[in-house]
Design a protein that fits this description.
Number of helices: 0
CATH architecture: Sandwich
Shape: elongated
Number of strands: 7
Distance between the termini: 23 Å
Order of helices and strands: EEEEEEE
CATH topology: Immunoglobulin-like
Structural class: mainly beta
Strand order of the largest sheet: 1-7-6-3
Largest sheet: 4 strands, mixed
Length: about 110
């Protein structure tokens, strides 16, 4: 996730969608931010929908997905660097940990 023209202490909200590459259903166990700049405001599971197949008896579903509403709060710049970075870690229940790099570029003053 890349953000432009960020300003210190001015939160930015974004939606982050998480889906299975293989069409499997899954649940999120936990979400954390390595540096604490990113927090989850809402974690909503969107149910799967039937595949568009008219074959009688077909009840296969496209996997569920998650919509995370996140908020990134850029810290005050402590030096001349104009970039911030953090990593959002999403632990899938009984599975792997996904890492979402978050980078932001401060607005020129």
């Amino acid at each position: 996730m890349t953000l432009f023209n960020i300003r210190p202490n001015q939160p930015i909200q974004r939606d982050l969608w998480i889906m299975s590459n293989y069409g499997d259903d899954f649940d999120i166990d936990s979400v954390s931010s390595l540096k604490g700049m990113v927090k989850v405001l809402e974690n909503k599971k969107i149910p799967g929908v039937p595949k568009p197949d008219t074959t009688p008896g077909n009840n296969e579903r496209i996997s569920a997905r998650y919509q995370l509403k996140i908020e990134i709060t850029p810290p005050v710049r402590e030096d001349t660097r104009s970039i911030l970075s953090d990593v959002l870690e999403v632990q899938i229940k009984g599975g792997e940990k996904l890492t979402v790099p978050c980078r932001g570029f401060y607005a020129a003053n």
